[in-house]
Amino acid sequence: MRLSLLCHAALCALVCGAGAATAAQPGPVFAISFPAARSAAPLDGRVILLLATDTSTEPRLQVDGDVPLKNPFMVGLTVDGLKPGQAAVIDAASFGWPASVSALPPGDYALQAVLNRYETFHRADGSTVKLPPDQGEGQNWTIKPGNLYSKPVRIHIDPAHAGRTNIVLDQQIPPIAAKPDTEFVRHVTLRSELLSKFWGRPMYLGAHILLPAGFDTHPNAHYPLMVFHGHFPDDISGFRTTPPDPKLKPVYSDRFHLPAYNRIVQQEAYAFYQKWIAANFPRYIVIEIAHANPYYDDSYAVNSANLGPYGDAINKELIPYIEQKFRALGQGWARFTYGGSTGGWEALATQVFYPKMYNGAFAACPDPIDFRAYTVINLYADKNAYALQGQALGVERPAMRNYLGEVFATQRNTNYMELALGDRGRSTGQFDIWQAVFGPEGADGYPAAIYDKRTGEIDHKIAAYWREHYDLTHIIQRDWSRLGPDLQGKIHIYVGSADTYYLNDAVYFAQSTLESLRNPPYGGEVAYGDRAEHCWNGDPKLPNAYSRLHYNFMYLPKILDRIAKTAPAGADLTSWRY
Questions:
Q1: Domain boundaries 2-172, corresponding CATH code
Q2: β-bridge partners, 337
Q3: 185-370+473-566 under CATH 3.40.50.1820, yes or no
Q4: Tell me: the pLDDT tens digits for 67-83?
Q5: Closest by alpha carbon to 527, among 569, 499, 497?
Q6: How far apart are CA 542 and CA 558, in angstroms?
Q7: SS3 assignment for 362-386
Q8: What is the spatial distance between Cα 486 and Cα 358, in angstroms, rounded to a whole number?
Q9: What is the pLDDT of residues 174-184, one digit of tens each?
Q10: Which of 149, 169, 260, 328 is the most exposed place for a label (fewest CB within 10 A)?
Q11: Per-residue pLDDT averaged across 538-545, rounded?
């Protein structure tokens, strides 16, 4: 027993202290600068140092928030007004993931540094904030156009012996080429007056639009609209007009344990195209919205204190523009929304906050829709987001698992990785965007912290704000007398019972609440995939690896049934059925 307690104490010292450092610790020092050839003016941003034992690719291209065990070491430092030739110094005092540079194991590494550049925004609410603007890449600092980086070099590190390494950010990531329009796929960009006013500079919304077969040859047809929510799309997903590339080198999927999964993706995309052009297939428009912002790869499609009126901008500016330009029916009975994960939360939130505008939401594996289960954290009752603490024993909360229950990351570890990538909620990571969307503005103009990012201590006053504004289960129950007539029969929720991020826990709470509603009963659907990981979306016959590629047609039978039952007298039910 004594040995077990000592081992537990040692484990806590390692895990709970991850990322921490003291000035007294020895270790290597890294001096990072950029030349005047890259910018004659001082720059703001986050310097990120990467050290990888995998030398097969650049360290920056190995960063993946969904697979933390594969990530390289990362250490971050915010710079304000860094001048050309001036060094930003990373040492043992700099916050690192999973620990500071003084804790690096001795050995050989591939070394690289990146400057994720910030822009100063003078917002309409009076706040001045420095944030990384999206540059068309979907808020991914590793490939963001304009970001500076160094070429990877090999280095031997022995943390017991201090040494200084100079790194020059002499490379710059180039712009991303625009996607061309095709017969079926069009792209639009719209300046949002609502968002531009909030952010104090021009802000844009984009969308990729999948047009039905015969769109150009049926000028009198008008179409239902399907809004597919999700993370930043670089184009319409899952649609391919040519057969799979026979020369495509097969790539094994670690996530789905399938060989040549990239070929499967192409085959399923081509199969969807064949459905799309088939005779008697219902004709409708699909859109995927590009609404990356200074905090994340999308906005969660709601109005919020820190991101501005994205909900209104999407639903009152972008959607009407698309519907007019591409002959959508433009009525609530003919609009539907669906998506998975972030998109699942957005689909449900859009339906709840704009209840008359849509005729059904299909929310797959949604991000937490009840903050009594903010993944595995009860924001209202728990004291700490990172650990459960008993009288003598503390247990770290998990963040990721597989269907067997094996844990691959903890809440502390995941949040510490974000803290290494950006302070003040600027990591563009998952927990930071939840905080930015769901929370109020802090005194410094950045999102008010729901919990201390280092200790995990929860601020229950902030949690109360979250509850009243974005806890979807609570809002539905609180406002059911008003929302009920417009939401009855429209809510469909699907999640795997072994969701990778424990998102099924919030659905359990939501289901109980929904089924308790009366006058009227909610009349929707909640279903679970047995042993299914993230992101099960309601198909009982196919595994995630395939059903995740079918969003744009898998809910169609239920949608058509809903249209038949709810379309008003005189509605156009024929022009789009050619």
A1: 2.60.40
A2: 227, 361
A3: yes
A4: 888 999 999 999 999 99
A5: 497
A6: 18
A7: EEECCCCCCHHHECCECCCCCCECC
A8: 9
A9: 999 999 999 99
A10: 260
A11: 94
Q: What is the pLDDT of residue 128?
A: 98
Residues 317-332, mean pLDDT to the nearest whole number: 98
Strand partners for 206: 189, 290
Token pair of 191, please?
């300046």
Which helix (H) or strand (E) is 2 found in, with range?
helix 2-16
Greatest CA span in the chain, whole angstroms?
81
Residues forming CATH 3.40.50.1820 domain(s) in the chain: 185-370+473-566
CB 224 within 8 Å of CB 328: yes
Does residue 6 register a pLDDT over 70? no
Enter the DSSP assignment of 106: S
State the Cα–Cα distance between residues 507 and 496, nearest whole angstrom.
Answer: 10
Q: With bands split at pLDDT 50, 70 and 90, how would you rate the model's confidence at 266?
A: very high
Which tokens is 425 given?
Answer: 């909620």
Torsion 564-566-569-571 (CA) sign? negative
Q: Give the HSE-up count for residue 453: Cα atoms under 13 Å, Cβ half-sphere.
A: 24
User: Residues 364, 338: contact at Cβ < 8 Å?
Assistant: yes
d(CA 495, CA 497): 6
Q: Which of 228, 255, 181 is nearest to 346 (CA)?
A: 228
Residue 7: band (very low, low, confident or very high) from pLDDT cuts 50, 70, 90: very low
Q: Where in the chain is the domain with CATH 2.60.40?
A: 2-172
Q: Rounded to an integer, what distance in angstroms lies between the CA atom of residue 31 and that of residue 536? A: 46
The answer to whether the beta carbons of residues 126 and 46 sit under 8 Å apart is no
Query: Position 536: which residue type?
Result: W
- E-only strand ranges, 218-371: 225-229, 285-290, 303-304, 308-309, 335-340, 361-364
Check residue 61 and report its DSSP letter: G
CB distance 368 to 380 below 8 Å: no
DSSP annotation of 501 = T
Residue 242's CB is within 10 A of a number of other CB atoms, namely 9
Q: How many other C-beta atoms lie within 10 A of the C-beta of residue 131?
A: 24
CA torsion sign, 349 to 350 to 355 to 360?
negative
